Structure formats: structure tokens, C-alpha cells
Amino acid sequence: IEDCAHVFNAIHGSDEKDPGTLTTPFDFRRNPDFAALRIGFTEDAPPAFLEALEGMGARLTPMPELPEGRSNAITVEGAAAFEFHVAPNGQPEPVPEGLDEREQRRRTRFTRGRDVTAVEYLQSQRRRHLVMKDMQRAMTGFDLYVSGSGDVGLTNTTGHPSVVVPYDFGVRNPESDSPTEMPLTTVLVGDLFADDKILSVAHAFQAATDWHLRHPDLSSIG
After folding, report:
1. What is the DSSP secondary structure assignment for residue 114, as one 8-state letter?
2. Alpha-carbon distance 175 to 181, whole Å?
3. Which residues, at least 6 apart from 73, have a Cβ–Cβ distance to it below 8 Å?
4. Which candidate, 222, 221, 201, places its Cα nearest to that of 58?
5. Across-strand partners of 184?
6. What local confidence, expressed as pLDDT, does residue 20 receive?
7. pLDDT value at 211 more than 80
């Protein structure tokens, strides 16, 4: 996490070539004052992680209901950003027939946005604005919250920062032919521009534990 903080400190801030950027304070603390932070948690937040935070002095409060909503903005932005690479001649290469759903989605990851109409994009942006306002109301009084799922679709829509933190090991797909213990992770979601706070809390957790230093045994994987 501290590595992430160093990188973020170097790249954050406004860019004269991008009018959509701005500079906000970034005050990463290796030893944050947990008593000064209001930390929420969702129902799917892992109890073990919450207990660890409480042991470090965190006061945890259940989060109110979070809004639901997704935007096609990232899909469209991805298609535009990678157009030179996936469609240098104006049209992307056709996707071969007979691919399974996973491979088809992989092949069209940066081209699906080309199929979104202008009307669909505009309506999605209007809905996104409403979701952003609802999310800001839900975050009122909170610096960050712990989410088991990460709320990726929501935060991709609203722009709230997130950091993924390993907190344990567990068997995934125990019914498979070769069940393997893999890292279990949770997500800290911060208020807008609270990147420093989620990184500070995540670093404090890592300083008090060693989960991020452990590695799964991959010898059973063929």
C-alpha cells in the first residue's frame, strides 16, 4: 500500500493537457488517527477485517443504503482511448465466430463502446449524475467504508476512490479438482478525493498484519 501511496503522490494533481483534472491535497499518514476517522461498513464487509480495524482504534458505523446504478461511460471512454490500437483503419477487426462468452467479452473489451448511440450515452450520463448525488448523500459524514464486494460498478460510475486489501486466505471453489488456498480481499471505498485516507488506513492494517507478505501454495495447480 505504501508503494501505491508513493506512486499516487507522484501522479496526482492537475495536468495542463487535461482540463478535467484538478489538484487536491494528498496527506498520506503511516499512522493515521483512527479516532478522527468515521469509517462505515456494508453488510458484506468481512468480520475479521472489521475486528482488526476496531483493534487499532477505529469506530465503525453501518453504512446507509447505497444507490444502485451503472454508466456506459467507461465502455465508451475505453473505445475512444484505444481506438488507435483496436481500430487504426476506422473499424476493428471482426471477432471470430464460435468463441465462448468470456473470450468474446475479452476480444471486444475496447470496442463495445462503439456500439453505444449518442442518445444512449447522453441518457446514461444523466442517470450517472443522479447516482453521483445519491452516493454523496450516502457518504455524508463518512471518510470511508469497508465493502466486501467493492461496489465496483457503483464507484466506477461515481468516481469514489477504492483500494483492495488482502486480509486472509481461504479456499476458493472447494468443489473443484484442485482446491487451492488463495488470498481473500476486501475493499476500502473513500469519499471523493479521500485517496490519502483509504491508503493511510490500508497501510496501517498492513503494518499490523502480514497477510500481504504471504503467498498461496500453487504447487497443486497443474
Report:
1. G
2. 13
3. 121, 124, 125, 128, 157
4. 201
5. 168
6. 85
7. yes
